[in-house]
Amino acid sequence: MLSSLTVSDDARRQPPPLPSLPPVDPANAHLGADISADAFAGFLTDGDAEVATWALRRALARRSRAEVYDTFVRDAMRLVGERWLAGRWTISDEHLASRTLLRVLTSVAPAMRPQDRLGVPAVLASVEGEDHSIGLVALSQVLTEAGFEVADLGPDVPTDDLVRYVARHGARLVAVAAMTDDRIGVVRDVVAALRAVPTPPVVIVGGRIADVADLAPLGADWTGSSLVEVARFADGLARRLAAEGSGR
Known about the structure:
The chain is an alpha/beta fold. It has helices at residues 9-13, 37-45, 49-60, 65-85, 91-107, 134-145, 159-169, 184-195, 209-212, 227-244, and strands at residues 120-126, 148-152, 173-177, 202-206, 222-224.
């Protein structure tokens, strides 16, 4: 019985199977096995945006954007973080992976059509002091596909500036993001300030903070870190606003 659980010397010497890399003939790009999140993480830390884009497009051809970003992309970046913390990869590797992923996400962004500029106005921002933006880019693409006209203000947006922008542009949906629970006070202030806007928007709070802190007391309309779930919420909101005839 023990021998059946023991790896043979020959098996130990065999290299792990390589992922199916891009074929020379683009017409055959649909062939080959699925790319793993592990391999995708390697492409990112190598700074290989071309191959990483190819791998991400393969995943998007099989599942929805929200599903792919929730699993394939998130798993890859989790591996990058874990390997950095374990000392296997350096902070330079982690930074290169993040920068490469931003380039890749830009490459696979949904095409904007003229009618998309007439969608429900939405504003995205990371709270003041928060310098992460990858989640906002992913959410922006998911909301664009759901029919929103998205303004992604990026990282580290002062609360007063965000509120003025939202009021001036009549945003109906505002998504604010943070990573760690030490930002909870800032997030609370942002939600309260948005509630005081003459026409208060629907407010969602997301990012990794949703996994490490209780956000229920903030009074936001939706909280969480799943793009699949926020896409479902946003789709319902868009339908409701369309029925009310008040998308803008």
